[in-house]
Design a protein that fits this description.
Chain lengths: 678, 348
């Protein structure tokens, strides 16, 4: 291949700087592009015969593991265990007819208990927010689907937590295990979600079990990382104090290490919960009922109002879960004076159980009252009506205004001025920017493309990264999905560039005043808790179903980390340096360009990296809108049993994402060291 | 330097030619290396000498202060005594038992029954209250809830933290946190008490207060103590004997008076240069044998420092002043001229 032929040339050029070597690669790529008309076809795209039959080979391998090695028996056994748990929560939360046959728990009892928990963790505001979220969910008539989602979450999150904690402890204890698991984790974190789904379906049956398994697997990696991080950070003296107190190894772990790593472990819990929520919503793609499925079908039939309402519910649930688990991280134990009575020490627990029992009783009583419909509502049978609501909010009683919102939104978007803007934007982006860019990327011969990526890697990071980048993209070329990979990459790059044009100026603006920085950071924090699926709603609302909507949804998703890290980067510039710039008589712009931005760049790069990772994630989800990239193919595999193809497609996404991750992380590290920012 | 024995009984801790090297394969390196190599030469080979050929004894009821600058190996040495670090070479015996030969179980048993340690940044468990922190070693020992609570309350009272039993470490000041650390180390009534720069993280005023507190406790308990500090004044205030370390080796180990009067190496001399010797040196140490001198007049106490006696030394006309021990028995004669030299600095 060209790649191999070009390498010695670049490597022989000793004494050249990093960017000169990158320049040589760039020149080679340009030469190839110029020569495109005379290049043989095999140099433009890999010919069919050169592509190894990866998918069938992988299929055979999977089948061997599944049937001949008997993995399927193990997974089916696990499925049984998991199913019991899932059925139990399903019964309790929305009354599925399974053991223990107690449910459904009436919604007021859950709302009341949630409010008390909110109060215990974060005071009155959290109590109102938690209670309010549950009340909203019930009143708009989404209680049942929300509980379908929650019933999986309440099983997946604890299981992911326990498995993650266990593996985290192993990785901390055994260096070898850590070394094996680290690269696997980084692949797992870049693997598109659809790649988790299909194996889950094949090994764990369709439905909630497969959804729960995919969700659990997706949520485990950050828990592992946070656990090892926390355990490594336990101060040496605390460890020594434990040893000198005569702890055995088990006592060291359970009484010293784990409690002392509490903060990191709880941060891990927060991440597990948020990832689980985001994923449970996405399991709609394999037909799991719940909020995600409802949202999917509503968006599919362009019911914007209903989609909007479900979006609000998901967002409220996300914020609630995030805030409550973060409040738990920050919550420090408070001491009680000696002699405080038992009930006072456990006042929250009593309140929690009490509120639950009281509202459970009220709801059960209310359910026994004769049910009254809204039509013959009068003062006399008001108790019956309210009683009915407390038992279950039926469709007629719900305050859902889906249709009205739908009309309002569609009416608003149909206003000439608005429509003109969205129409023009759609036209401009599509015709002038996106399509030409895409065509250009598709035009580039494969070897030239790989050289370009390598040049980029060499320029920013170095030789090792350039070689890895070249290897990864060569693998993509040999997977036989080159064009679709390039289209995926094109969507990611154009969305990220657009996101930079919005996010970075916004961040710079916000960081000029403490107040605005605080507000925008809060907004970013909140937006980052939303399940990614939510971002499709405004995109479809504004642009309908096309390429622009795809780019737009990625754009808003990717703007969040860019803005956030720009603010953080600028805010962490040491004050002595800005003061020195002021005293040197720099103007505001000069100070920004030659002092603040250079120092903030390494931090901003972290945001840029996250933006790209988010974009790779979102571009696959956006297949739902209708794309021509890897995501589309991936989504198609979900309907069948093409495990090999599914895996190949997923690896392509992962390889491209990892390349960027590697390059940008290395660059940020080198910069940070050069600037002495630690 | 070997220590000058201060007591006839067998030592509680006895270290013989102890080495602690950090690096890729320290045991093999130690075997192959030339034992006379200095710190820099060892470092050039890629190893850090935490402890370099140290031989030292600690006797029952004695307070040995190990002092040196940061990086001199004093913390490493004390961690070798408690086997928080496994030593690379040499022998450490505690109560005649080679601690490197102990199984994990026996080591845990030794720590549970005989050793207590106090740490520079306290090393408290953040999720436990004062009482639970103090009771922690008892809990590890498997004592029942009631007795360990009783004992913990007792020790908390001993260190003056009554009324704070239910507080969490972060709710306490630095001085109070270290009191918790001290209480925890005393909970199991250890025979050997290790203190690793216990007061270094505290403000100077609090530090002084804690030193007084510590002396009060020691008066009461009479433990065998290994105390680490980088503060010479602190060392002089507390020590029976001082071991001065540099680059992992002990430069000199002796009583404060001897270290000030007869520094063994140039490093120790420089170290003690700025010390006001009159405050350190005691009459008993300067005294010569009483026979041959005609002694008259009131004796001075052997325990009095030259600084305490300053006025008397200047105003008294006697060439030799009798020195008496605690019982009032005259044991020696203090050469006034020599004492004045120490006081005025021209003699040393």
């Amino acid at each position: 291949m060209t790649l191999v032929a070009d390498m010695p040339g670049a490597a022989n050029a000793q004494g050249l700087s990093q960017s000169q070597k990158a320049g040589i690669l760039l020149l080679a790529a340009v030469a190839l592009m110029l020569a495109r008309p005379i290049l043989p076809d095999a140099m433009v795209r890999l010919p069919e015969w050169a592509i190894p039959p990866l998918a069938p080979m992988l299929d055979a391998l999977f089948n061997f593991i599944k049937d001949d090695l008997g993995l399927i028996h193990l997974t089916r056994f696990l499925t049984g265990q998991l199913e019991v748990l899932l059925d139990a929560t399903a019964n309790l939360l929305y009354g599925k007819r399974r053991w223990p046959n107690l449910g459904p728990i009436p919604w007021p009892a859950i709302a009341a208990a949630g409010a008390v928990l909110g109060y215990a963790l974060g005071g009155w505001r959290m109590a109102v927010f938690a209670g309010g979220t549950f009340i909203w969910t019930a009143l708009v008539g989404q209680w049942k689907i929300a509980m379908q989602t929650m019933s999986v979450l309440t099983v997946a999150a604890p299981v992911a937590f326990l498995v993650g904690l266990g593996l985290g402890i192993l990785a901390w204890k055994y260096r070898g295990f850590d070394r094996v698991i680290k690269p696997i984790l980084s692949v797992l974190q870049t693997l598109p979600f659809f790649t988790y789904l299909l194996p889950a379906v094949i090994f764990f049956k369709v439905g909630p079990t497969a959804g729960a398994v995919a969700t659990i697997v997706y949520a485990i990696p950050p828990m592992i990382l946070m656990t090892t991080l926390g355990l490594r950070k336990v101060p040496a003296e605390v460890v020594e104090a434990g040893k000198m107190s005569g702890c055995t190894r088990l006592q060291m772990l359970t009484r010293v290490y784990i409690p002392a790593a509490r903060t990191e472990i709880l941060v891990g819990v927060n991440q597990v919960i948020m990832l689980c929520l985001a994923m449970v919503v996405l399991t709609a793609f394999i037909g799991m009922p719940g909020l995600g499925a409802k949202l999917l079908s509503n968006m599919g039939s362009f019911k914007i109002g209903n989609s909007f309402e479900i979006g609000v519910t998901i967002v409220l649930l996300a914020i609630m879960l995030d805030r409550m688990s973060k409040a738990w991280v920050l919550k420090q134990p408070e001491h009680f004076e000696r002699g405080t009575p038992w009930w006072k020490r456990n006042v929250y627990l009593i309140g929690f159980v009490g509120a639950f029992v009281v509202f459970l009783g009220i709801s059960v009583l209310a359910a026994s009252l004769p049910n009254v419909l809204a039509d013959d509502l009068s003062l006399r049978n008001l108790p019956g009506y309210i009683g009915g609501i407390l038992d279950e909010v039926t469709r007629k009683q719900s305050l859902s205004n889906g249709k009205e919102i739908d009309t309002a939104i569609k009416g608003f978007l149909a206003i000439d001025g608005i429509q003109a803007v969205t129409e023009w934007l759609r036209w401009f982006l599509n015709v002038k920017v996106l399509i030409p860019f895409r065509n250009a990327m598709l035009w580039v011969p494969t070897p030239a493309f790989i050289l370009l990526v390598m040049a980029f890697a060499w320029w920013l990071a170095g030789r090792r990264e350039a070689l890895i980048a070249g290897l990864f993209f060569t693998l993509v070329a040999f997977s036989g999905w080159w064009d679709r990979s390039v289209i995926t990459l094109y969507t990611v790059i154009s969305a990220t560039i657009l996101a930079m044009m919005i996010g970075i100026p916004l961040g710079i603006f916000a960081s000029r005043s403490e107040r605005w920085a605080g507000r925008i950071l809060l907004a970013c924090d909140t937006a980052q808790t939303f399940p990614s699926f939510i971002y499709l709603i405004p995109a479809i609302m504004l642009f309908g179903v096309n390429d622009v909507a795809v780019v737009f949804s990625i754009l808003i998703f990717a703007t969040v980390p860019l803005t956030r890290y720009t603010i953080e980067g600028l805010r962490t510039v040491p004050p002595e340096m800005t003061e020195a710039a002021d005293m040197s008589g720099a103007s505001r712009l000069q100070k920004l360009l030659s002092v603040q931005l250079p120092l903030a760049l390494p931090t901003m790069a972290v945001g840029f990296n996250q933006a790209i990772m988010f974009a790779f994630f979102m571009v696959i989800i956006a297949a739902f809108i209708g794309t021509q990239d890897l995501g589309q193919e991936l989504q198609r595999t979900l309907a069948g049993t093409d495990l090999g193809k599914n895996f190949v497609l997923g690896m392509n996404v992962s390889l491209m994402a990892l390349t960027f991750d590697l390059i940008i992380t290395k660059w940020a590290e080198t910069r940070k060291q050069a600037l002495g920012l630690g | 330097m070997s220590s000058s024995s201060t007591s006839q009984s067998s030592p509680v801790i006895s270290a013989r030619n102890v080495w602690k090297l950090f690096g890729p394969s320290p045991e093999r390196y130690l075997k192959s290396m030339d034992k006379g190599m200095d710190f820099e030469a060892i470092r050039a080979d890629g190893y850090i000498a935490g402890v370099r050929d140290v031989s030292i004894d600690v006797h029952k009821g004695e307070m040995l202060v190990i002092m040196g600058l940061s990086g001199s190996g004093k913390s490493t040495l004390v961690r070798c005594f408690s086997r928080l670090h496994d030593i690379t070479g040499g022998v450490i015996e505690v109560d005649g038992q080679d601690i490197m030969g102990l199984s994990e179980k026996d080591l845990i048993a030794l720590r549970r029954s005989k050793m207590g340690m106090v740490f520079q940044s306290f090393g408290l468990l953040p999720h436990r209250t004062v009482l639970e922190n103090v009771a922690f070693p008892l809990e590890m020992r498997g004592q029942d809830k009631h007795t360990r609570r009783e004992r913990a309350l007792e020790v908390v009272k001993l260190v003056g933290l009554e009324g704070r039993e239910e507080y969490f470490p972060r709710e306490l000041s630095g001085g109070q946190q270290q009191r918790v650390g001290i209480a925890r180390s005393l909970a199991i009534e250890p025979d050997i008490w290790f203190l690793d720069e216990p007061f270094s993280a505290l403000d100077p005023l609090i530090r002084r207060e804690m030193q007084d507190e510590f002396l009060r406790l020691q008066e009461m308990l009479g433990k065998t103590i290994v105390f680490i500090t980088h503060d010479f004044d602190e060392a002089l205030r507390l020590a029976d004997r001082i071991a001065i370390m540099k680059d992992g080796a002990v430069e000199q180990c002796d009583t404060p008076d001897q270290i000030v009067l007869n520094p063994a190496t140039e490093y120790v001399r420089k170290f003690t240069e700025d010390i006001e010797k009159a405050r350190v040196v005691h009459a008993g140490v300067l005294a010569e044998a009483a026979n041959g001198h005609s002694l008259e007049g009131a004796p001075v106490s052997a325990k009095a420092s030259i600084h305490d006696l300053a006025r008397l030394l200047v105003e008294d006309g006697r060439a030799y002043i009798p020195v008496s021990d605690a019982d009032g028995q005259v044991t020696g004669a203090l050469d006034r001229a020599k004492a004045l030299d120490v006081l005025l600095g021209s003699g040393a």
